[in-house]
Specification:
homodimer, Aspartate Aminotransferase, domain 2, alpha/beta, 4-stranded antiparallel sheet, Aspartate Aminotransferase, domain 1
């Protein structure tokens, strides 16, 4: 009582402002404490005095003071009054900034931004690897001619899908809105197991199917669970850059497995590093070359994995798309020793924005993967999983796939014929009649990276074949060529696009 | 020509079977090669002979043979005929198994399963940690009285949500079905930034908002990017077990920060390990104790992080739910040095099955997080993100939140009153009036783990407070109590459930 109280004359109340008077009082006092205007230990006027001073109800004043006491800005001493907390040191207060009031400019400069430059010592080894990542294969917002890896989303039966969505939402019960199984909805896992058994020759039970957010998350999960820092991983060279980056940046030491017209050269690869923990392959349709791996190499790789207790990661990213012949069964179905992990995605066969894929793991890995999904991830929307499961079960998926195969085959044909008529003196198409992209070798000696840059200036997206190689590969050992995605481009646009390509490539 | 050809009499064709004749021929030959019945080097009869022998069209025979050649099972020598490939060694063949024909029993025993026992040497360090994980806090399929962490999904406005879903699907363009931004849809990130600024005092721009699959994935991502193996992480003790496990199993060495009635004891924690890389805290509502961290501790933690270039992970998991007073602004808004990473989820405020949450990172971490999301993950369904963004923007989210706050407040009241009238001699409720769960201390000396087991037998879910402690904590230093979730239980069921609790707890 003996100590004089401060007057809090800085509190300006405005009945027209959007925030309640309570909020205005609370914020004014809080901000003044944080800014050091109200010093620790200072006594506040009584709530009765403040009520008079501000002309607001006593309840409002008491509520604001109570909250500041609850949050520790003030403390009350029975019979003595309310004081600014003296447990906050000056030092601490200076490190903090005043709260931005509601409605303040959202895009104001953050003062921290200009001051703070991130140092590698502040992040993890993985974080440090990601600080200087190569962005060559970043996704573009809208796919255009000839962006690889994008399916014909314009052909997706949105009406069928959204009708199923409506139906599912009509039947949804509160329990369907809860967390659900970490490894994904069982109806979807059943649909996938049965689809893969019939169409891909994959042997698995539903519990071996782990739902993930797509191939990328699947590869990352496999590499995290099976590859420790420093472990060697056999990887196709040239190969799928994002998968290789995911493995290499996280932990693994990449050992390059050469690729020829039959895909990965298995014996050359395993000879380089018999102790590899994992081998990543795309046997159905080597990415980006387009080769199909023949049975003898498949068996050889399986025998190696079985002997050396290593794992095979079979990425079957676009195997559903083969034109002119039926899809080739997956390696997984030939695996008697439980060494193959099979990764697939619905991005190429339903639509990428769905963000759903799967990893089929051998029985002995089920528990480890389930635990990882529970702790480190979540398999996306449970409702979407029910929708997708119904889309498959009711035959829409099969129908859509057959239709997409026709559409993509037409687009591939338009592309190949276009190249033949306009560019046959400059480009040689390689690889099998499959997938969503086409690799073509350059006949000239010009840098494919430079051509890709020039194509970009002409409004055409393509990738340089030489950039799919591991950075350790000498330039002279790299094939020079261009990788084009034809699936997301209508035939008329393919023709137009190739005309532009013909102007640039020489 | 000189070499006799085998007769292929094992091929049995059946026009009534579902598979095409082509498929039957292909599979019969393939299986016979894999099983060693057709030896390497053996010559096949000519396609003309086979056409006659099987009574099918020559096109069918040629298609099947061509495919087997393409896959490497057979090879053709011009003028000599077609031979079983001799590049497959007997050894390799024995390692493989015959393909399971379509329609075979899906749930047949996998022969690999019984033989293969996983050894820690076959997986990564992370994988080995996950082989023997404690499943105490596993999600149950359907939440029941009194499962913590589950919101009242029965109160979710499914009609409003599914109407927005319908509307979004009507407007969806093909470009919306493509991959989209790795860090999530910008409209959603804008909605979240503006919501958090207004309601949680968070200061951020939309580009600092990373969309993830929920809190669990957010915590995992933060720990992977900032914590290297062996780095120390300050963690509340008792604390949120799944987050602690995610950090500890992946890399970090947990240093336990004691918790009292004001939440984490910051100075005690930082004194234990000044060099920690990260501190995980739940300042709004300590999990599981329920304390709110006062301002002086918040400022102290911020000053420590700023001085030692460490990070603070603020998990604001259920901060929207405070009953009787307004939510307390987040620590993130007080951070002038860009050291706070803020994690939130829509699981508690929309519904868990949505699988969407967010991480707000300081500006200097934006690029690293974007790269990680691109390489290692995908932020779930892009379409759901558009739906959620509209749900927020059109005010449904705010309305729903206010309604949920009322419902949860009623349920909390029913729970607290029930405990008071039935169990006040045995349980003391602690923590603030907030969240979806309530912790209560046991007055007796009986083991809380044993009581939880007995409650389970009586059909009641609860968690033992002592089990939220790090395993290194001596038993005598652990509070004994029960943690109940009241939010997912209707008031009438709360009463019934507590009657059962009263029978068990003594």
């Amino acid at each position: 009582m003996g100590m004089p109280s401060t007057e809090l004359e800085f509190v300006r109340l405005d009945g027209r402002r959007r925030e309640a008077l309570f909020q205005q009082i609370y914020e004014s006092i809080r901000q003044s404490i944080l800014a050091g205007k109200l010093k620790p230990g200072v006594r506040l006027p009584s709530s009765r005095d403040l009520t008079q001073q501000w002309g607001v109800s006593r309840t409002t004043v008491v509520a604001a003071i109570d909250r500041l006491v609850a949050e520790g800005y003030l403390h009350s001493v029975r019979g003595s009054g309310t004081f600014v907390s003296d447990e906050m040191s000056e030092e601490c207060l200076c490190a903090s900034v005043p709260w931005t009031p509601p409605g303040a400019n959202e895009s104001q400069d953050n003062p921290a931004e200009s001051r703070n430059v991130l140092r590698t010592s502040e992040v993890s080894d993985f974080g440090a690897e990601l600080m200087s990542i190569d962005k060559v294969n970043a996704d573009t917002a809208a796919p255009e001619a000839f962006c690889p890896g994008e399916p014909a989303t314009d052909a997706f039966p949105m009406d069928v899908w959204s009708k199923i969505v409506r139906g599912v939402w009509k039947r949804v019960r509160p329990v369907d809105l809860t967390y659900g199984e970490p490894a994904g909805q069982l109806p979807l896992r059943r649909s996938i197991a049965s689809y893969l058994q019939r169409h891909r020759g994959v042997r698995c039970e539903p519990r071996q199917v782990m739902i993930v957010g797509g191939t990328q998350q699947g590869v990352d999960l496999v590499s995290r669970l099976l590859v420790s820092p420093g472990d060697r991983v056999l990887f196709e060279n040239p190969g799928y850059v994002s998968a290789r980056d995911a493995i290499e940046k996280a932990a693994g030491r990449i050992v390059c497995m050469p690729v020829d017209e039959h895909g990965a050269c298995v014996s050359a690869g395993t000879a380089l590093t018999p102790q590899a923990k994992l081998a990543y392959v795309t046997p159905s349709h080597q990415y980006p070359i387009g080769a199909t791996m023949p049975i003898e190499r498949r068996l050889e790789l399986l025998a190696w994995a079985s002997d050396s207790k290593a794992w095979i990661l079979e990425d079957d990213y676009d195997s559903e798309y083969r034109y002119g012949q039926q899809p080739i069964p997956a390696m997984q179905g030939l695996d008697a020793s439980g060494r193959v992990i099979y990764v697939g995605s619905f991005s190429k066969v339903v639509f990428p924005a769905l963000g759903l894929g799967y990893v089929i793991v051998p029985p002995q890995l089920v528990e480890v993967f389930e635990n990882a999904l529970r702790l480190a991830s979540r398999p996306g929307s449970q409702i979407d999983q029910l929708v997708l499961s119904e889309f498959i079960r009711e035959g829409h998926f099969g129908r859509h796939l057959r239709r997409m195969r026709r559409i993509h085959a037409q687009r591939r044909l338009a592309f190949v014929e276009g190249v033949r008529s306009l560019l046959s003196d400059r480009l040689t198409i390689i690889g099998s009649q499959a997938g969503l992209h086409c690799a073509a070798l350059l006949k000239s000696k010009k840098s494919d990276v430079r051509i890709v840059r020039e194509l970009g200036q002409a409004g055409i997206t393509a990738r340089a074949l030489s950039e799919y190689y591991h950075p350790s590969t000498p330039t002279k050992d790299r094939l020079k060529g261009l990788v084009f995605g034809f699936a997301c481009v209508a035939p008329a646009q393919i023709k137009k696009g190739l005309a532009k390509v013909a102007e640039v490539v020489c």
